[in-house]
Specification:
Layout lengths: L12 E4 L3 E5 L5 E5 L7 E11 H14 L5 E3 L7 E12 L4 E11 L3
Antiparallel strand pairs: 1-4, 2-3, 4-7, 5-6, 6-7
Length: 111
């Protein structure tokens, strides 16, 4: 399993989007329940600002090689190692040979 080893900028944002099923009744009541197991994955919004062209391209190449399909190991700031996928990211050329990347890492649960 490949491991993502680049450290994001300080201020990385973690959020959660629990998977649930809900039913709304005609009288205004609503019933909710968890949708399966592992229903509360972490989603991280990350920035890698002003990296050298070599390192910025290495990050971009790592994510492109996974193609949003293959998961990778990553340890979030202050967290425990887990499996993640990156479904979207953007690369921008800042100035000179500096590159910035914004990416969203989503925790996945697989064997």
């Amino acid at each position: 399993m490949p491991t993502f080893t680049y450290a994001p900028d300080y201020g990385a944002t973690a959020r959660r989007e629990p998977r649930t099923k809900s039913v709304r009744f005609g009288d205004g009541y609503e019933q909710r329940q968890s949708d399966g197991i592992n229903t509360n994955p972490e989603i991280w919004d990350l920035n890698f600002t002003n990296w050298s062209e070599t390192d910025g391209n290495a990050i971009d190449d790592f994510l492109a090689a996974r193609g949003s399909i293959e998961s990778f190991d990553w340890t979030p700031p202050g967290g425990s190692a887990g499996k993640f996928v990156c479904r979207n990211w953007s690369k921008s050329y800042v100035i000179g040979n500096l590159i910035s990347i914004s990416a969203t890492f989503e925790q996945v649960f697989e064997a």
